[in-house]
Each structure stands twice: as structure tokens, then as C-alpha cells.
Design a protein that fits this description.
It is built from two helices and ten strands. With 139 residues, the chain is an alpha+beta fold. The longest helix is centred in the middle third of the chain and has 13 residues. The mean pLDDT is 94.
């Protein structure tokens, strides 16, 4: 079975800010757009920023491995070297992290690198990586 790209539409307050953040800061190529939405190539997946002022942002948090994880959030599992490169890119851009790049569940099944940050509209993103991708669904 081959993995198919997912599609995620999410609200933003300002399309120009979304274009700068997802396009320039994160390096996502832009696809189609209009005055109300922008498609981005999110590591081979299609995310679409839709203009919907006041609708973005997380609404709660859950504790995971000692951190308050913003809910809702979205992201992707990257290869470790891509995760490290993105962490450096985001740091260089002055991104404020909700949870700094760190290793979660050290020494346990499912050990992973993770980081949380928000886009300019307040949407929370989690980017993660596993030293061993076979541990993605480890219990």
C-alpha cells in the first residue's frame, strides 16, 4: 500500500502573513490561490490556508511527557535530518516555540524528536521525527 497525500484546510487571519510564514519561513511551495485561500505543498501533502478571521488557534492543551500540548494542532513526521534542518531554519527566523525542539519519551518505545510552534494566526503545528520510523505506533 502506498501512502496517499492528505489534504488539510485551516483558518488564517491574514493571507499575506500565511504566505510569508508557510512559504518563506517554512519553505513550502505555493500552489493555486485566490483572494480567500492559498494552497501549499506541505512535504508532499496539500494544506490550504483559508481566510477566516478570528477562527484560528488552539483551544485547549493536554499534558504529554511533561509539556502542555496545544489542541488542536497539525504537522508531519519528518526524517530526523529534515527535522533538525527545519528546527534550525525556524530558530534562525526567530520563531517562538510553544515547545522547544526536544526529545520526548527518552529511552521508551516511541522516542521522538518534537517541536511545537504557531503560525501568525495562532494555529499550532507539531513537527516530529523518529530515530526509527518503525516506532511511530509503538505502545
Amino acid at each position: 500500500m502506498s501512502l496517499r497525500p492528505f489534504h488539510l484546510a485551516f483558518p488564517v487571519d491574514d493571507l499575506a502573513e500565511a504566505r510569508r510564514f508557510y512559504g518563506e519561513t517554512m519553505g513550502c511551495a505555493e500552489g493555486r490561490s485566490s483572494d480567500e485561500w492559498i494552497d501549499f505543498d506541505f512535504y508532499g501533502h496539500q494544506i490550504v490556508a483559508h481566510l477566516a478571521k478570528g477562527q484560528a488557534g488552539d483551544r485547549a492543551s493536554n499534558h504529554v511527557d511533561g509539556h502542555g500540548v496545544p489542541v488542536p494542532h497539525f504537522g508531519i513526521v519528518l526524517a530526523m535530518e529534515d527535522w533538525q534542518a527545519l528546527a534550525e531554519r525556524l530558530k534562525a527566523a526567530g520563531t517562538e516555540f510553544a515547545i522547544e525542539p526536544t526529545i520526548r519519551f527518552k529511552g521508551q518505545p516511541g522516542e521522538q524528536a518534537t517541536m511545537f510552534f504557531r503560525d501568525p494566526s495562532g494555529n499550532a503545528l507539531e513537527m516530529k521525527a523518529f530515530a526509527d520510523d518503525a516506532m511511530l505506533f509503538a505502545t
